[in-house]
Amino acid sequence: MSGRQRTLFQTWGTSLSRPSGAPGGSSGSERPQSPGVSRARFPAAAEAAEEQPESDDDVLLVAVYEAERQQSLENGGFCTSAGALWIYPTNCPVRDYQLHIARAALFCNTLVCLPTGLGKTFIAAVVMYNFYRWFPSGKVVFMAPTKPLVTQQIEACYRVMGIPQPHMAEMTGSTQAFTRKEIWHSRRVIFLTPQVMVNDLSRGACPAAEIKCLVIDEAHKALGNYAYCQVVRELVKYTNHFRILALSATPGSDIKAVQQVVTNLLIGQIELRSEDSPDILPYSHERRIEKFIVPLGEELAAIQKAYVQILEAFASSLIQRNLLMRKDIPNLTKYQIILARDQFRKNPSPNIVGIQQGIIEGEFALCISLYHGYELLQQMGMRSLYFFLCGIMDGTKGMTRVKNELNRNEDFMKLYNHLECIFAHIRSTSASGIFTIKKGEKFFYSHPKLKKLEEIVVEHFKSWNAQNTTEKKCDKTRVMIFSSFRDSVQEIAEMLLQHQPVIRAMTFVGHASGKSTKGFTQKEQLEVVKQFRSGGYNTLVSTCVGEEGLDIGEVDLIICFDAQKSPIRLIQRMGRTGRKRQGRIVVILAEGREERTYNQSQSNKRSIYKAISGTRQVLHFYQASPRMVPDGINPELHKMFITCGVYEPEKPSRNLQRKSSVFSYRNGK
C-alpha cells in the first residue's frame, strides 16, 4: 500500500445526502443527512446532485448514503474495510515500546504511564487516528486539564498522524454554547477540557453515543468528583461502546489513588514504564538527581521556636479535650489537624453541644491556619510566613475570628511586629507587581535555602559559559525552578534579578489572582512559555502550573525548592529535563521535617511501581472493557510514512496585556 490510506467514507465525509426522489428518500425537497452534520460541508457534491438528479454521481451518492446508514447500525459503526489494518507511522523513528503500547491500547481500556518526554502523546495520536479510520461516523475526543494543554495537544497530534485540520476542533469554556453544539455535529476529532465536556453532556449538546475513543491526559487527576470522572459516568449512561486511553507520567500518589483512577476511568490494563525499564533506556537521557540538605540557621531557628510556642498556646485546648491525639506539637501537620476536625464532625461528643461546638470549630480553623504558616516558615522562609499572616491580619482572607484570637495573643503580636519591621516595605512594593532592587540595597535572604539556590543557579551559568564559546552563551541553556507558593516564586525571582543580564528570570504562575501578585491568563502563560523557549528568558520560576504537560522545551537544570509528600509532583517536575540531552535535577531541602517528607515521597514512589509491576495482583481492573473490533476481524499492523501538512493554529491576540509581575530583561535589552 502506498500513500495515506483513505476509506470511501473518509473521501466522501460522513454527511453525504440522499438525493430527492432516491429510493427510500424523502418526498419533499429536503434531503435527510447524517445526524448533526451540515450539508454545507460538501457544497460541490450537493450542487452536482441538485443539477443532475439522474446522473451516475447521484446513484453513487445514494449507495454511499445507504452503506453509511447500514454501517451505523451494524458493528457499532465499524468499517470492516478500514478495520482490516491498523496504521502505525514511520515518519518518526519506530520505537518498540511505543508500538507495543499502541497495539495494546487499541483493544482494551488502558492507562499508559510513561516518564515525561517519552511519547505518551505520540501513542495517543496513533490510537486516535485508527479509531478515526475504523469508525467513519464516530467521534474521537481528547481531554486535557487546561486550555494551554489542549492547544498544545491538538497541534502535537496533528504533527504525528496528520488528521485533516477541518475534521478537528478545539473547544474551551469561552466558545459559545451554540457554536460548540455545531462543532460537535460537524467535526470528528475534538480537543477540549473536561469541564466543557461535562457541560455539553449535561446540556445534550454532545452526541455521547457517537463517541468511540476518549483520551484522558494527566489521568492521575481522576480522583473523587473531578471532571474526568463525571465525563465517564455520563458517557456510560448512553453507551459502553467506546475506548478509553488514559495518559500520565505517574499512576498516582499511592496504591489507593491508583485504584481510584483505575475504577473511575474503567481501566482494563496498565502499561507502566519507569526510568529504569529496559525498553525505554535507549531513548531516555540521564537525569542526575542531587539532594542538598540545608540547616535552618540561627535566625530562622529562633523564629521557629517562637512560633512553636504560639502553636502550643492554641493547640493545647484541643489536646486537653482529646480532640488532637498527637501531643508532639512541633511535628504535627496541617493535614493531621484537618483529619482530626473531620473525625470530630463525624463523631461529636454528646457532651459538646451548641455554642461549645462552634468554639471548637473555631479552634480547629485557627490551628489549621497556624500550621499552614508553620509549614511555610520551614519550607519557604520568614517572608512567605509574613505575607500569609498579613492576609489574616489585614482581613484579606476574611478570617475575622482567627484575626481576633491572634490579636489577643501577646507572643503572636510580638513575632508579627518583628516580621513587619523586616518585610513591610517589600510587601508594599510587591502590591504594584513590579520588583526592582535599588543600588546598594541588600537582598534579605529569608531562608538559608535561598542562598543555596542562588549559588547553584549562578554556578550553572558560569560553568555553562566556560564550556561553550559561542556568542550569547547563556541563551543556549535553560533553568527551571519550582516552588509551590506564589509568594516564594516572587521572592526567588527578585533574588535572581540581582544577576541580570546573565540570569534573565521570569515568574510563571496560574491564572488566579492574590493580593500581592496578579495571576497569568492562559494566553499569557503560553506567551511566557514561548519566550522561554526562544531565549527571551533563560530562567523560569514556576508554581505547580509549570509541572504538568506543557512543552516548556529543553531544560538543563531543574531546581525543586520544596518537597511534597506526593511522588506525582516530583515526577512531573523531573520530566521537564533530560528530553534531548543530559539533565540535572537539584532538590533543596530544609533539615528536619522537609527532609523526612521527601524521603517518604521517594519510598511511596518505589512501593507503587513495585506493587503494580509485581506478580501479585493488587489492583482490581475493569473487566468489561469493549474490544470495539467485531469478532472475526483482527486488524493487521501496517507501517506507513505519513506526510503531514503545516499546522495552522488560531492567531493569538497581538496586544497581550501583561497583568502579572514582570522581571523583564527581554532578549538582553
UniProtKB/TrEMBL annotation:
DNA-dependent ATPase component of the Fanconi anemia (FA) core complex. Required for the normal activation of the FA pathway, leading to monoubiquitination of the FANCI-FANCD2 complex in response to DNA damage, cellular resistance to DNA cross-linking drugs, and prevention of chromosomal breakage. In complex with CENPS and CENPX, binds double-stranded DNA (dsDNA), fork-structured DNA (fsDNA) and Holliday junction substrates. Its ATP-dependent DNA branch migration activity can process branched DNA structures such as a movable replication fork. It comes from Molossus molossus. Belongs to the DEAD box helicase family. DEAH subfamily. FANCM sub-subfamily. The keyword 4Fe-4S does not apply. Residues 452-627 form the Helicase C-terminal domain. This is RNA helicase. One of its GO terms (molecular function) is ATP binding. Transmembrane segments: none annotated. Component of the Fanconi anemia (FA) core complex, which consists of CENPS, CENPX, FANCA, FANCB, FANCC, FANCE, FANCF, FANCG, FANCL, FANCM, FAAP24 and FAAP100. The FA core complex associates with Bloom syndrome (BLM) complex, which consists of at least BLM, DNA topoisomerase 3-alpha/TOP3A, RMI1/BLAP75, RPA1/RPA70 and RPA2/RPA32. This supercomplex between FA and BLM complexes has been called BRAFT. Forms a discrete complex with CENPS and CENPX, called FANCM-MHF; this interaction stimulates DNA binding and replication fork remodeling by FANCM and stabilizes the binding partners. Its main location: nucleus. Pfam families: DEAD (PF00270), Helicase_C (PF00271). It catalyses: ATP + H2O = ADP + phosphate + H(+). Residues 1-14 have a biased composition (Polar residues). InterPro entries: DEAD/DEAH_box_helicase_dom, FANCM/Mph1-like_ID, FANCM_DEXDc, Helicase_ATP-bd, Helicase_C-like, P-loop_NTPase. Residues 101-269 form the Helicase ATP-binding domain. It is found in: Nucleus.
